[in-house]
Amino acid sequence: MWNALVNGIAAILRYLYEFTVTIGVPSYALAIIILTLMIKIVLYPLTHKQMHSMKKMQEIQPKIAEVQAKYKKNPEKANQAVMEIYKENKVNPMSGCFPLLLQMPILIALFTALRSFQYEDLGSSFLWIPHLKDPDPIYIIPVLVGITTYLQTKLTTPNTGSESAAASTQKTMLYVMPLFIGYISMKFPAGLGLYWIFFSIFGTVQQMYINRQPALQKEGMGDK
Q1: SS3 for 190?
Q2: N or C: which end of the chain has fewer CB within 10 A?
Q3: Cβ of 71: how many Cβ atoms within 10 Å?
Q4: How many whole angstroms separate alpha carbon 189 and alpha carbon 124?
Q5: 31-88 per-position pLDDT tens digit
Q6: Contact 104, 97 (CB under 8 A)
């Protein structure tokens, strides 16, 4: 089952490469970008629900930080107040996890397929990269991986102004995770790094759209 999923993704990538050959621009890089966009479209219902849930969690973070500060000497009371905020705003703190769990097998299979993909020589180079099966020799791809990961993480990290341990951990992870992912991508095939960059870019654009939705709704009500 797992091998079938990985092989299926590899087969789609080969088909997309043949498509780029047909249109006269043989490029595995373009095929990877198209495949990444297709994956994002297929997963859109799940990612939209997940991102919308995270957005709602961000919006109530100031209220949560306020009650946590108010009842910092009474953890039980603080937890009860937080649960009331969840209930009043119809937010389930676990609702963003389930869609992510459903996406993970596809994303891991895509990762596995790209990591071991057998490229043909024609169309396997990309700009400064001699071959997409090899790591980027001048580390531009890892740097872009780190930057795009940071931008996407930044949009999903609530800024509460709190000095709690949880807020401090979130702030640390905002910088540590992009650096870590950028570092490990130095040893991965450049094609895999290219996928990660565009996956993060498409995810960032989607998150920006979702983040703007409440403001757009308010503007629409104001116009009426």
Answers
A1: helix
A2: C
A3: 16
A4: 11
A5: 999 988 888 888 777 777 666 666 677 677 777 777 777 777 777 777 777 777 777 7
A6: no
